[in-house]
Queue: 2 jobs
Job 1
Amino acid sequence: MSRVVVVGAGVGGLTAAVRLARAGHAVTVFERSDHLGGKLGVYERDGFRFDTGPSLLTLPQVFTEAALDLEPLDPVLRHVFPDGTVLDSSPVHAEFLERIAAAMGDEAAHDWDRFWHRARRIWTASWRSVLRKPVTPASLAALSWRVGDLAAIAPGRTLRSLGRHYLRDPRLRMMLDRYATYTGADPRRAPAALAAVPYAELAFGGWYVPGGLGTLATVLASACASAGVRIELNTPVEHIETAAGRVTGVRLGDGSLVRTETVVSNVDALTVYRDLLPEPRRLTGLADRSLAGFVLLMGVRGETPSLAHHTVFFPSYYDSEFDTVFGSATRRARPAADPTVFVTRAADPRVHPSGCEAWFVLVNAPRHGTGWRETDWRRAGLADAYGDHVLGVLARRGLDVRDRLVFRETRTPADLAAATGAPGGAIYGTAGGLMRPVNRGAVEGLHLVGGSVHPGGGLPMVTLSAQMVADRIGPA
Ligand SMILES: Cc1cc2nc3c(=O)[nH]c(=O)nc-3n(C[C@H](O)[C@H](O)[C@H](O)COP(=O)(O)OP(=O)(O)OC[C@H]3O[C@@H](n4cnc5c(N)ncnc54)[C@H](O)[C@@H]3O)c2cc1C
């Protein structure tokens, strides 16, 4: 029986651990923190239960290691535009077209239908040629894929330009642009291939896990237990030991050495290459880093019928938000004055006391430490002041919750970085791009899973990375 060490108990690490143990390996997971799930965090207070990370599960067919009880969402998302238009997305295409026509007119519905057919081609090509296969610069260059798939994905084209080509209504353009942020990217730089994201979300639906998405970590943990995986919490891996270009073991925080020839790392690739390997190595194929997020967790009195499970409130000038949170060569990244505000409020009595609601509010935010003082999220008072600001923005967009708060907690990019080891609190690891770091590590026996490597961030992609890596390692 071969011994495999998994570093990190995020969704990628736990999924790889289950799959490898079922394939006959003796698997040990070392996790630096005192809890499982990584960014898939849960926070409980006064009878309220919050997911501190993911709130939307897509591509349920991917989660084969976790038997989940799922509830479909309709609408998947409610969009509130700056002119007051409200558009609910539907997992049934014909129904969504009717909703678009009712809210924005027939021309807009026709445009979305045309875009949808192109997005389906992109999805089909991505699923077949990219998402379940290790993609490397060499495989791209060798054009080993079907030429039709390459044409559909249109490498080199941006999501923004694809949207401008198909969609005339500025509100639909805004709606499409937002999908770039599902990988923490700027739509003006993100590849057109990300059109696969709205396709997948609407064609296969958006799902809620009763009790909250944190349940996924619990289910994966029990799958680990049944498969015989050993999990050690509060056990950071300080180094990956190598000799002659091969993995020989991992050095733990207490100085002890655990010998193994196979390490699956769920740690951000940047950290692995910079800090865990014996000599810092250049990470090839590093795409842009993902955005971080600023989160408010709020216990709220009363009910809010204007909210769907997920509601997005758009700003008047979307590009100015991207300019601000990404920064540029001449302007440092800063929190946005007029950000998009994403509110999740589950109608699930398991997550709030009766007569109340548990709100998760997320806005795009620059990574911790990427700019000057403005992006030092540890600066005294910044988190509270920005939280006040976000609630003021929400009030100006028609939803004033400030006099209904039972309590309010804040999670900044610096908090996420501290809790999960995500550099700068990047939500998704690397932002959208075809050239993410590859799953095969720089030394023999090292494999990488999780949001910072191919095929990317978000629960389904992270799960696919783990499945690909486990299958590549093969049976014991
Ligand atoms: C606010 C927020 C909202 C999100 N919303 C969604 C959403 O709605 N839908 C969706 O699909 N995705 C969403 N995501 C993204 C999703 O959470 C991530 O893509 C996914 O959970 C990342 O999993 P991972 O496998 O990369 O591991 P991570 O979650 O990054 O976990 C890595 C683990 O490794 C551990 N670790 C790090 N260094 C060491 C070390 N040296 N030794 C031992 N252990 C170590 C960490 O403590 C951590 O537990 C969201 C994320 C956030 C933060």
Job 2
Amino acid sequence: MTNQAPIPVIVNGAAGKMGREVIKAVALAPDLNLVGAIDHSLEHQDKDAGELAGLSEPLEVPITNQLEPMLGYVAGDRQSPPGVIVDFTHPDSVYDNIRSAIAYGIRPVVGTTGLSPEQIQDLADFADKASTGCLIIPNFSIGMVLLQQAAVAASKYFDHVEIIELHHNQKADAPSGTAIQTAQLLGELGKTFNPALVEETEKLPGARGSVADEGIRIHSVRLPGLIAHQEVIFGAAGQIYTLRHDTSDRACYMPGVLLAIRKILALKSLVYGLEKIL
Ligand SMILES: NC(=O)C1=CN([C@@H]2O[C@H](COP(=O)(O)OP(=O)(O)OC[C@H]3O[C@@H](n4cnc5c(N)ncnc54)[C@H](OP(=O)(O)O)[C@@H]3O)[C@@H](O)[C@H]2O)C=CC1
Ligand SMILES: O=C(O)C1=N[C@H](C(=O)O)C[C@H](O)C1
């Protein structure tokens, strides 16, 4: 046990499904100090972040939409370790959020998906110049890291693979960040998957899903009742090998989020993927 002051943590997207879960996890961690709760939702302005997250006691941290003043306030606190901002907002705003945080020297732990490869490269350059750690993690669950590792192992032996990702129907982006990352990891072997055997015609556009790197197809399902699920299906003559991950509670992401908050202070550049910090 060290006597170090707790790490100041801001949660952006604090009123959302993931934000509320992060508020609870941070509040219960003795080495972390929730100092700010940002959300642009007008419905929740000034509400106590702890009460909104379902904690029995208020945390005395009000929800506010004032991101830049909060970043400035935390950056100005010289008594505490550098601040960390956890972002679970929206694909449209996450790029600007990360740039603002890095500009203030606040370390971004990013769960929000939907960043383009160009945006990620630009953010990596910006974090490098600022010598500031930045973590972009498409999926914080350990089960998904294990699925991806098993998929990479299998891909040496199978030439045919497709991905199906299934999510709740409030998800803004498709395909999921996790499915894109899974295809990238499979593609890193330098192999081209799914060599065409016949000329295919889509009678309805999109019937065969989207085509990611190295020819891997991704199919996106959106339905109420789902949380987050992914299948990676390998096929070869006479056999099918299916890997599947299911989430039943967003609490599954919290060990990964807390690990990222603790690890980011030692980083000086952008790191993409939970597997890199385990
Ligand atoms: N990496 C991972 O392991 C995981 C990643 N995700 C990703 O996290 C993101 C959020 O997911 P989820 O919590 O389900 O979404 P929600 O819609 O439930 O929550 C997002 C919250 O952020 C608010 N918000 C949107 N834009 C801004 C902004 N510019 N500034 C401040 N607040 C904003 C929203 O307000 P309003 O509703 O009023 O717009 C909402 O309260 C998604 O991209 C999702 O894919 C989700 C689960 C796990
Ligand atoms: O929106 C979600 O819910 C999730 N989003 C992430 C993604 O796009 O991969 C992670 C997880 O699948 C849940």
